[in-house]
Amino acid sequence: MISRIDLRGNTLPEGGALRDLLPRAEFDVEAALEKVRPICEDVHHRGTAALIEYAEKFDGVKLDRVRVPAEALKEALAELDPQVRAALEESIRRARIVHREQRRAPHTTQVVPGGTVTEKWVPVERVGLYAPGGRSVYPSSVIMNVVPAQEAGVTSIALASPPQADFGGLPHPTILAACALLGVDEVYAAGGAQAVAMFAYGTSGDDGCAPANMVTGPGNIWVAAAKRYFTGRIGIDTEAGPTEIAVLADDTADPVHVAADLISQAEHDPLAAAVLVTDSLALAEAVEKELEPQVAATKHIEDRIKPALAGRQSAIVLVDSLEDGLKVVDAYGAEHLEIQTADAAAVADRVRNAGAIFVGPWAPVSLGDYCAGSNHVLPTGGCACHSSGLSVQSFLRGIHIVDYTRDALAEVTHHVVTLAEAEDLPAHGAALKARFGWKVPTE
C-alpha cells in the first residue's frame, strides 16, 4: 500500500542530492501555464461573458450571473446545520486570537540626532480570496484566508469559489455560510484560472468585479499556474501544490496515530503526499500493518487514499538515527510536519524547514486544519525552505519613512557624494549639493 525508501547504512548526501532521494508528486506548473494563458487573456478581453462560458465548459453550469446574490448568502447561513455553524464559529474565534497577535506596530529608529527611519505597516487595499470546490468543500479555507486579511486591516475582500451544479450554479452553501459568518458579502461563482484572472484584471458591468491587489488561497494546478502567470501584476501567497504530511517518529510513537494521520492527508487528493520518516523498523512495520484496516474502514478509498499512499509521492523513509531523520525532514520541507518522538518539543525546535510543525501525539495535523488557531494555507512542494504560511503579514506592506533635519543631512552629505561618484552617478550627489549651495559641507 505504501513503499519504503531505505536510507540506512550510508552517509546522507547534502542539499539537493538528498531532496532527490525523497518522494514528491509531479506538479508541473510550467506546463499548465501554457494552457491557462488563453483562458486568462479571454477573461481579460471578454470579462463576465468569458466567466459564464467557462462555468458551463468546466463546471457544467449555465450561469445567469457570476456574483452571488446577498439573499443566497443569508439563506445559506440560515439553513446551516447548527453543529457545523458552532464549529465554524469556534474555528473563527481561535483563528482571530492567533492572527490578532500578529499585527505589527510602527517602529521609529533614530539613526543619528535629527535623522530617523520609521517603518509603518500598511495593508493591501483589496484582496481576492479563492476557496476550492472540487473533490471536497473547504469552508475552513474561507476562514484561513479571510481572518488574517481582516486582522491585517484589508478593507475590500472578495471571494471566489467554483459554481456547483447541485446548488443551482452557486458555490457550495457551506462556503457561502462561512462567508456570511465572516461578513464577506462580495462572493463570485467562479473557479480555476478564470477566477484568478477575474481578480487580476477585474470585470465590468453590474455583475463586475473590481481588480484586486493580491490573490490568495489554495487550489488545483490551474489555479497555481494562473497565480504564476499574474505574478508581478498581483501579489500572491504561494503556488500551492498537492497537500503533504511528513511524520518524524521514533519507537515511542503510536502506530495507530501515525497511520491515521497519514491517511488523513491522503484523503484530500490522489496526489496528496504521506511520508513517515523513522529510525525504527518496528514502527515502520507496525504502521504498514495498521494502514490496511484503517483504510478499509474509511471513505474515499479507491479514488483518493489508495492512489495517494501508493503513489511516488508517499513512502516510509528509514534512517539510521533521529539526527538523520531531522536532516531528511529539513530537506523535504513538508507543508505539515508532525513530530512524534521522545521529547518532541525539543526535536521540533531543531527543525528549520516546515510550513507548520505539530508537536507530540495530541497535536495532529487535522487540528491545525480546523481549530488550532494556526493557519492551514501553507507552502508545499518543498517551498517551506524559503516561504511561510499565510498570516497577517502576508497582507501587510512595510513602508520606510525617512525624516532628516538640515544638520543631519549635512553631517552625512560627503559620504553620499563619495558613494554616488564611486558608482558614476554624479547627479545623485548633486541632489545633496544643491541643498548646500553646491558645496559639500565639511565633516
Description of the structure:
With 443 residues, this protein is α/β, with parallel strands linked by helices. 44% of the residues lie in helices and 16% in strands. It has 17 helices and 14 strands. Strand 7 (214-216), helix 9 and strand 8 (235-236) form a beta-alpha-beta unit. Helix 2 crosses helix 3, helix 2 crosses helix 9 and helix 4 (70-78) crosses helix 7 (173-182). It is globular. The model has no long low-confidence stretch (mean pLDDT 96).
Keywords:
443 residues, alpha/beta, six-stranded parallel β-sheet, five-stranded parallel β-sheet, globular
SSE order and pairing:
Elements: E1 4-6, H1 15-19, H2 29-46, H3 48-59, H4 70-78, H5 82-100, E2 107-112, E3 115-123, E4 126-130, H6 139-152, E5 156-161, H7 173-182, E6 187-189, H8 192-201, E7 214-216, H9 221-230, E8 235-236, E9 244-249, H10 255-266, E10 273-278, H11 281-296, H12 301-310, E11 315-318, H13 322-332, E12 336-340, H14 344-349, E13 356-359, H15 365-370, E14 396-404, H16 406-422, H17 426-433
Parallel strand pairs: 1-11, 4-5, 4-7, 5-6, 7-8, 9-10, 9-12, 10-11, 12-13
Antiparallel strand pairs: 2-3, 3-14
Helix pairs in contact: 2-3, 2-8, 2-9, 4-7, 5-6, 5-7, 6-7, 8-9, 10-11, 10-12, 16-17
